[in-house]
Specification:
This protein has about 375 residues and is of the alpha/beta class. The protein has two domains: about 10-230 and about 350-370, TIM Barrel (Alpha-Beta Barrel); about 235-345, no CATH class. It is built from 16 helices and eleven strands. The radius of gyration is 20 Å and the shape is globular.
Length: about 375
């Protein structure tokens, strides 16, 4: 007797959007981070500067995933207002992304506690004393790491989970691919590991679970949703790109980051160090004015960055480039003046669904793949 045909893995396009919160996901999708964060699904929207606004964060939270509000480029007062606005838009759990080296990180943590926010994330891990103080406030601490040794260090400091981002990821990134980094980190630490770098659909979620992760985190995929505040023309620029249209470069702020290859980026790659330094000084002045920080605070923060990240003075001056150039593109829509942080996964994204549609699609596809891999037993 011939074996019955194996049902095909559904493509992203074939999985129905929507489905509603009443649809039943596969039991394997109820992971440790669902309990830790208080969310329905093991999907995280990362805290992208100028992109992860209250509206995007709340839309993600209302879809049953963890939305993370980007507070790094905001002043203390703006952070307070942004958290309050997010609270108005959702009653679901969400997180806030902070800068661990910010001199007012304690004041920002107090804002989270006052607003009832439980999760705080960091693009770069904060110092051990900061983690301890955040735990004293009852916050769940989730830094992003790009190397096994960094995961081991922050796990020893007591973080509650880590986001392990492989080299495919957008923005500041490392060199190790997700498929190699992820199992290394899972084997090295005893806290939940969230996979990032190269994820956009339910198949990727199942792959991450197979490596031992407790879920996935996505930036570029959530940037390309209808709830994202990014101007339509900028989204169109992303949608037109392939998987080979990104570049990793340190010319922006002295630290390697993955961005779309644009005319501006090409100019920066060809430009002189002196020209980049002049641009950086102007951006530093603008960032200070926009953030409301004093020169003393910026100097204190800069010295802390130099020690913790081993930056040279030139790199330190360049550090204001990223937030200012992202603002030019993501807020003002000026691709000619700003950079477009992007993961390589941009090349496989071809639509702009709502957050609700995206999350339900990922859950439906992941459930279908898991059912195919391990069909439920025949009750007869």
């Amino acid at each position: 007797m011939s074996e019955p045909p194996v049902p095909p893995v559904p493509s992203v396009a074939s999985v129905p959007l929507g489905g509603g919160r009443d649809s039943l996901p596969h039991p394997a999708l109820r992971t440790a981070i669902c309990e830790l964060f208080g969310v329905d699904y093991p999907v995280v929207q990362t805290g992208m500067g100028w992109v992860s606004t209250p509206e995007l964060t709340a839309a993600t939270a209302n879809a049953g995933a963890l939305g993370i509000l980007a507070a790094s480029p905001l002043s203390l007062a703006e952070t307070d207002a942004a958290i309050g606005r997010t609270r108005e838009l959702t009653g679901r759990p969400f997180g806030v992304n902070l800068r661990g080296d910010a001199p007012d990180v304690a004041d920002r943590a107090s804002l989270l506690v006052r607003h009832g926010v439980r999760v705080v994330s960091f693009a770069l891990a904060p110092a051990e004393r900061v983690i301890r103080s955040l735990h004293d406030e009852g916050l769940v601490v989730v830094p992003t790491i790009g190397a096994r040794r960094h995961a081991e260090k922050v796990a020893a400091w007591g973080v509650d989970a880590v986001i392990a981002q492989g080299g495919e990821g957008g923005g500041h990134t490392g060199t190790v691919p997700t498929s190699i980094l992820l199992p290394q980190v899972v084997d090295a630490v005893d806290v939940p590991v969230i996979a990032a770098g190269g994820f956009s659909d339910g198949r990727g979620l199942v792959a991450a679970l197979g490596y031992g992760a407790a879920g996935i985190a996505m930036g570029t995929r959530f940037l390309l949703t209808s709830d994202s505040p990014v101007p339509a023309a900028v989204k169109a620029e992303y949608l037109a790109r392939t998987v080979t249209d990104t570049v990793v470069t340190a010319v922006l702020d002295g630290v390697p980051q993955r961005v779309l290859r644009t005319e501006l980026v090409e100019q920066l790659l060809r430009g002189s160090p002196l020209g980049r330094l002049r641009r950086s000084v102007g951006h530093a002045v603008a960032f200070r004015r926009m953030s409301g920080a004093s020169w003393r605070d910026m100097l204190t923060e800069g010295l802390a960055m130099r020690r913790s990240r081993e930056l040279g003075w030139t790199q330190l001056i360049m550090a204001a480039n990223t937030p200012m150039m992202l603002r030019a593109s993501m807020v003002d829509g000026r691709i000619d003046l700003g950079t477009l942080a992007s993961g390589q996964v941009v090349g496989v994204i071809d639509d702009v669904p709502s957050c609700a549609e995206l999350v339900q699609r990922i859950v439906a596809e992941a459930s279908a793949v898991l059912d195919r891999l391990a069909p439920p037993a025949d009750p007869s």
